Amino acid sequence: MTAFQEALAWLYGRRRDGARRTHRRAAKLLDALSLTPPERVVHIVGTNGKGEAAARIARSLVYAGESAIRFTSPHARSFQERVTFNEQPIREADVTDFVLQSRPEAERIKATFFDLSLALAVWLGAKHDARWLVAEAGVGAEGDATMALRNISMVVATNVSSDHEAAIGPGLAGIATNKSAAVRTPAPVVSSVAWPEAGFFKARADACGATFIDVTGDIGPQDDVNIALAVAACRTLGLPSAACSHATTPIQLPCRWESFRLDDDKDVVFDGAHNVASLQRAIDRLKPSDHVLFGAQAQKDVAAMLQMLEPRDNVWTTAVGEAPEVLRRHPRFIGTPEVALAKALSELQAGERLVVLGSFRLVGALSQPYAAAP
Fold it and tell me: Are 49 and 107 in the same domain?
C-alpha cells in the first residue's frame, strides 16, 4: 500500500458513527491546525446542481486571473475530485502531507471524513495563497461542516427538493429552513430556488442586510438553470464579462450525464441521479429506446424513484450496499452491480444506449473501467 493509499484509508475511516451533524468539529479542527479560509469564500447550498455551479464559478474565477480552490462532494471515481486548485485535482502528495500534519489533532478532536476534507481544501488554499474558495455544502447547511467557513463573499442557492429529509426536514419547508441557514452575513445571495421555498432564503437575506438576487424569472423553458445561476453569481462578484462567459461553456464532471462509446456502435451513460429531483431531470433526457440500470441507497426514496421509472421497458435494478425490500422485489433486480451492468449491456442493439442512474457510489464504480480506458 502506498503512502497515499494509507492516507485515504485513514480518511475514510474517520466516520461520524451517529454523532450529530455540527460545524463545531470542523471549526475546532481549523483552529487547531491554524488554518484560515481564503480571503473570499463562495458558499454553495442546495439539493442538486451544487457541484456544477461550483465548477462553473471556479472556472470563471480562474479565467479572470484569480486563484481558486474548489471543494465539492461527493466524489464519483476519485477522492481527488473533491479538492481542486485552479481546476486541477489535488496531488496525491498533498493529500498525504495533509494527513501526516493533521492526524494527531484530528484524532484528538474526533474530526470526521467530511471535516477533514474541508480542512484539506483550506490547507491547500493556504499552501498556494489562493484568494478564493468555492465550497459546496454537504447535507443541508445548518450543522454542515462548511458553516465553519468565514470570509463569506456570496451564498449561492441552487434548489430545494426532497432529499435527506430525515436529517434536515421535515418537508420542503424544513429543508429550505435548514439550507437557508447558510445566509448569515450581509454577503449577497444568488438563488435559483423555486418559490415558495425561495422565501426562506429571502427572509434570511433581509434579516442579514444581504442583497437577494432571484434568477428564476430570467430562466426560460429551454435554459439551463445552473448556467444561468453561475453567470449571475459571476456578474455579482464583479468578474469581467469575458470571464463570466466561461460559466456558459460546456463542462463535463464525472458521472454527470457522462457518455462513453462502446466498440459496437452502442453507448453507456453514467449519471448520479440519486434523488427524486435529479432522477426526473435524467428521465427528461432519456430516449424511448434507452435501456436503464438503476440503483440507490436504502435511505433514499427508492419506492418513489422506481415508480418514476415504471412506465419504461428495459429497466434493470441493482443494489448499492444493503438493498431495500422494494428494490429486491423489482422483476429485473440483480444484486451484484457488475453482473447487472453486464446483463443490461448484453441486451443492447446497435445504435442503442444504456443509461446507468442512481447513487454516485454506484455510477462511480461502474464507470471506472470506461474512464480509465485509453
Answer: yes
Q: How many CA atoms lie within 13 A of 170 on its CB side?
A: 0
Which of 50, 70, 117 is closest to 360 using CA atoms?
50
- Residue 132's nearest CA partner among 215, 212, 63, 225 is 63
Give the pLDDT of residue 221: 62
User: 91 exposed, middle or buried (CB, 10 Å; 0-12, 13-18, 19+)?
Assistant: middle
Phi, psi angle pair for 316, to nearest 5° = -105, 155
pLDDT of residue 120: 98
Q: Domain ends where: 175, 210, 245?
A: 245
CA distance 65 to 58: 11
How do residues 296-325 score in pLDDT, each as one tens digit? 988 888 999 999 999 898 999 999 988 889
Mapping DSSP to helix (H, G, I), strand (E, B) and coil, where does residue 26 land? helix
Domain boundary among 191, 214, 245: 245
CA distance 15 to 13: 6
- Kindly report the CA angle at 254 between 251 and 257, in degrees rounded to 5? 70
The residue type found at 344 is: A
Alpha-carbon distance of 162 to 172, in angstroms, equals: 6
Pairing of strands 189-191, 40-45: unpaired
